[in-house]
Specification:
Largest sheet: 2 strands, antiparallel
Oligomer: single chain
Strand order of the largest sheet: 1-2
Radius of gyration: 22 Å
Number of strands: 4
Strand content: 15-25%
Distance between the termini: 24 Å
Order of helices and strands: HEHEEEH
């Protein structure tokens, strides 16, 4: 595994966590959106799904996985999909507001399935993961600089 492999793996994590943060921000911005374009109902919360990039999926013992990862450089992570949660996974909130333009016949307005507390926890988690990947890149850069200084 070279220095550049470590940077590549961490860079893939940075990219994935950046998209996750953007999706969380989009969820928070649309927490009160009762009607989306097309009139299909309220906004649906979105979740980013990650998967291992090719090159890091090895089966077997820990020693075999470690050896393969060191030889191939691993693969990092990538976003496999941005999944919209269905009603059965996270139900919409119904609030009684008879004067609201999007109220149904009974006076209830259907709000998105966005929980602000959950979004804040996810945002903190994504921020910490982003910071960890940035620190790995910085540590790798510092190790490479020290290695160059040894040769002087």
């Amino acid at each position: 595994m070279s220095f550049l492999d470590g940077i590549d793996i961490s860079a893939s994590g940075l990219t994935a966590q950046r998209l996750r943060l953007d999706t969380i921000a989009n969820n928070m911005a649309n927490a009160e959106t009762t009607r989306v374009a097309g009139g299909t109902g309220p906004y649906r919360r979105q979740v980013v799904l990650f998967e291992a990039r090719p090159g890091s999926a090895v089966k077997g013992s820990f020693a075999a996985i470690l050896k393969s990862s060191l030889e191939s450089g691993g693969g990092g992570v990538r976003v496999s999909a941005i999944h919209s949660l269905n009603d059965d996974e996270a139900p919409f909130k119904k609030v009684y507001e008879p004067g609201h333009p999007d109220a149904d016949e009974q006076g209830y307005v259907t709000y998105p399935n966005v929980n602000m507390v959950e979004e804040m926890v996810n945002m903190i988690s994504a921020t910490r993961a982003y910071e960890a990947n940035a620190k790995v890149i910085e540590a790798t850069r510092a190790m490479a600089a020290r290695a160059l200084n040894i040769g002087r």
